[in-house]
């Protein structure tokens, strides 16, 4: 296929040939996303979310760089500089709303991308490293979004930063020193805002670097596919370009349409009204909630109180506060271990009749955790939060390992093309 | 043989082990040195001299009537100063014997029983508890209530119920006269 491409009109162009001889960048691009990259021919729309996440990252970087040209990272000026962006800077409202909603859409795409991987077993051999890099990207995104949310210096910015940085005070012995180091003072204050701005500018480029190695690992073995069966030969693939470039572009069109709906008609739908009140270090808002994409993790954090069953066995070892912090970070980090926690050799849930159900229960559990995180920990929400937290860990640590051993998978098709050309028995 | 600058096999092996030693020790020294050179960068993030300089706050207590509280700022943090009523002091002393998650005697938390001076930062995750102003909820123990995750503090600022692990901290302070106090 690359043979065919190298004789294409484009590659015969004198300038292209001159560059290609000195630095083979055109064949590199062709092998990455062009006709020289054979992709499984059965990739479904669930495979669109990787390129959608990439698009979101680009939107964040472009809008962010422009915002940074108008933004002032100082406690006395930050809030007003954002209001100036909203009211006085030409089209500033648009750029800020793109950035605010772009964060939400970035997480939305990445969450679906991750659940896609969980359903089709994309994390299994030989894609474990690819998956781990993905988890690192998620962690880096969370850090970036958390610090970005502090920048407008509203009430939620300030108190979100206070509550989350205070989590580190749970670390035994050195906790308070760590928190002072994070703050550069004795409270969240100007030094904190300054360093968060610096890191918020840096982290997206770290993410970009991770995305590049993520794609490198992907291209070493190529994409998984809905059957989870390896590509057996050319009959199972089609060239990435034009078939999947056009499919990805179509997905981007739909994604941007929905994105624009929120940017133009409901720009504050995902936001918190309290963040339009300037930060006041002497008054905590009555109800602190993180942005929606942190809610499930926030629910896990809060589930750990002294009366939580999961806490009892470790209560002699650590405070409930520390246990909650470890559980919250653990809930993300455990995902990196899923390639080994899932003991089944079969990749796709299509051929795993029992796992298929547990997958959807896990999705439901995750959504319930999100709901719990949005409500004050009172009444029934406390118990629901504790049960769904326990289930989250049970799924990863108990159900996945056992299911792989006891489940009887369905017969796998011989190949991707056999799955459509041969009738199922 | 004569064309190449090769050493006899025995010497080669000898040379290699010495080289290995040099290589490993050089790499170790280099790695430790690099790690140590990170410290100034990390330490630069600790509170700067001007931040540390804001370390004390002076307060005049004369205008605060019995049963009133004020909040002052010390090191950027709110400090609660409460002129306690006789009933509150009595309750606080009585509760010395109650089941306390973070046991402390009321007498050890004040310099003068009338004046309760504490850092107004919830020891759970740093919210500011309610109860300073007239009409704010004071929690089930008549002191302070943190709305963030529901911590209840008593009339001595001790944690009684909820996720906070410790009592409200007592800063170091000094009475410079009957109505003058320096915090920090
Ligand atoms: C991974 C990509 C990124 C994510 C997830 C992200 C997330 C966020 C979030 C959630 C906010 C708060 C928006 C608000 O409520 O006002 C924010 C603000 C901000 N971000 Fe980013 N960001 C990203 C990339 C960038 C980049 C690359 C830059 C600059 C080069 C940047 C510069 C800014 C600035 C200046 C603000 C403050 C202005 C404002 O609040 O609207 N961001 N970011
Ligand atoms: S911060 Fe006060 S209860 Fe959590």
How would you concisely characterize the structure shown here?
The complex is a heterodimer of chains A (425) and B (184). Chain A has 425 residues and is mainly alpha-helical.
Annotation field: number of helices of chain A:
18
Order of helices and strands of chain A: HHHHEHHHHHHHEHHHHHHH
Proportion in helices of chain B: 25-40%
Query: For the largest beta sheet of chain A, what order do the strands appear in spatially?
Result: 1-2
What kind of sheet is the major sheet of chain B?
Answer: 3 strands, antiparallel
Q: Strand portion of chain B, in percent? A: 15-25%
Mean pLDDT of chain B: 89
**Count of strand segments of chain B:** 9
Rg of chain B computed from alpha carbons, rounded to a whole number of angstroms: 30 Å
Structural class of chain A: mainly alpha
Helix percent of chain A reads 55-70%
For the largest beta sheet of chain B, what order do the strands appear in spatially?
1-9-8
Catalogue the ligands. protoporphyrin IX containing FE, FE2/S2 (inorganic) cluster
**Distance N terminus to C terminus of chain B?**
81 Å
Which runs of chain B of at least 5 residues are low in confidence (pLDDT < 50)? none
Explained architecture:
The complex is a heterodimer of chains A (425) and B (184). A two-stranded antiparallel ribbon of chain A has the order 1-2. Chain A is mostly helical. Helix content of chain A is 64%, strand content 1%. Chain A has 18 helices and two strands. Chain B is an alpha+beta fold. In chain B, 28% of the residues lie in helices and 23% in strands. Chain B has a three-stranded antiparallel sheet with strand order 1-9-8, with no helix packed on it. The radius of gyration of chain B is 30 Å and the shape is elongated. The mean pLDDT of chain B is 89. Bound molecules: protoporphyrin IX containing FE and FE2/S2 (inorganic) cluster.
């Amino acid at each position: 296929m690359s043979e065919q491409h190298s004789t294409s009109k484009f590659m015969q162009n004198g300038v292209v040939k001159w560059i290609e001889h000195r630095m083979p960048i055109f064949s590199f691009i062709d092998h990455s996303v062009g006709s020289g990259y054979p992709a499984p021919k059965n990739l479904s729309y669930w495979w669109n979310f990787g390129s959608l996440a990439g698009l979101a990252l680009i939107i964040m970087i472009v809008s962010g760089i422009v915002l940074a040209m108008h933004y002032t990272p100082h406690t006395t000026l930050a809030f007003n500089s954002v209001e100036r962006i909203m009211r006085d800077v030409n089209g500033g409202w648009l750029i800020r709303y793109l950035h605010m909603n772009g964060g939400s859409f970035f997480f939305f795409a990445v969450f679906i991308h991750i659940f896609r991987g969980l359903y089709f077993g994309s994390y299994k051999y030989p894609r474990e490293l690819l998956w781990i890099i993905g988890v690192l990207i998620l962690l880096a995104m969370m850090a970036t979004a958390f610090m970005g949310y502090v920048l407008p210096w509203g009430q939620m910015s300030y108190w979100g930063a206070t509550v989350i940085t205070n989590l580190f005070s749970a670390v035994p012995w050195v906790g308070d020193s760590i928190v002072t180091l994070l703050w550069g003072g004795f409270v969240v204050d100007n030094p904190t805002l300054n360093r968060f701005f610096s890191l918020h500018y840096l982290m997206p480029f770290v993410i970009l670097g991770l995305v590049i190695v993520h794609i490198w690992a992907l291209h070493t073995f190529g994409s998984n596919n809905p059957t989870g069966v390896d590509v057996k030969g050319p009959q199972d693939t089609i060239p990435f370009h034009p078939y999947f470039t056009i499919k990805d572009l179509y997905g981007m069109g739909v994604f941007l349409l929905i994105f624009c709906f929120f940017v133009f008609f409901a720009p504050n739908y995902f936001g918190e009204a309290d963040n339009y009140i300037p930060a006041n270090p002497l008054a905590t808002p009555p109800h602190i909630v993180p942005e929606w994409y942190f809610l499930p993790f926030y629910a896990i954090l809060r589930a750990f109180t002294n009366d939580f069953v999961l806490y009892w066995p470790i209560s002699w070892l650590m405070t409930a506060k520390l246990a909650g912090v470890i559980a919250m970070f653990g809930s993300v980090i455990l995902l990196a271990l899923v390639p080994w926690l899932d003991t089944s050799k079969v990749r796709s849930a299509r051929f795993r009749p029992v796992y298929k159900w547990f997958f959807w229960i896990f999705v439901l559990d995750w959504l319930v955790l999100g709901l719990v995180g949005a409500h004050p920990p009172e009444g029934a929400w406390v118990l629901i939060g504790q049960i769904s937290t326990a289930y989250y860990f049970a799924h990863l640590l108990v159900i996945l390992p056992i299911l792989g051993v006891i489940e009887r998978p369905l017969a796998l098709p011989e190949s991707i093309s056999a799955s459509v050309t041969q009738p199922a028995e | 043989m004569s064309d190449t600058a090769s050493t006899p096999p025995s010497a080669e092996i000898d040379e290699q082990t010495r080289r290995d030693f040099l290589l490993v020790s050089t790499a170790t020294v280099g790695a430790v040195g690099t790690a140590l050179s990170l410290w100034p960068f990390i330490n630069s993030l600790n509170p700067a001299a001007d931040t540390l300089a804001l370390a004390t706050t002076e307060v005049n207590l004369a205008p605060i009537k019995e049963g009133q509280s004020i909040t002052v700022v010390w090191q950027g943090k709110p400090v609660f100063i409460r002129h306690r009523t006789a009933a509150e002091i009595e309750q606080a002393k009585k509760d010395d014997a109650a089941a306390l998650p973070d046991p402390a005697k009321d007498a050890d938390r004040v310099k003068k029983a009338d004046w309760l001076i504490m850092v107004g930062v919830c020891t759970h995750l740093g919210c500011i508890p309610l109860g300073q102003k007239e009409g704010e909820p004071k929690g089930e123990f008549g002191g302070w209530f943190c709305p963030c995750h529901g911590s209840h503090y008593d009339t001595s600022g001790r944690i009684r119920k909820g996720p906070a692990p410790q009592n409200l901290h007592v800063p170091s302070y000094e009475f410079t006269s009957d109505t003058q106090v320096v915090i920090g």
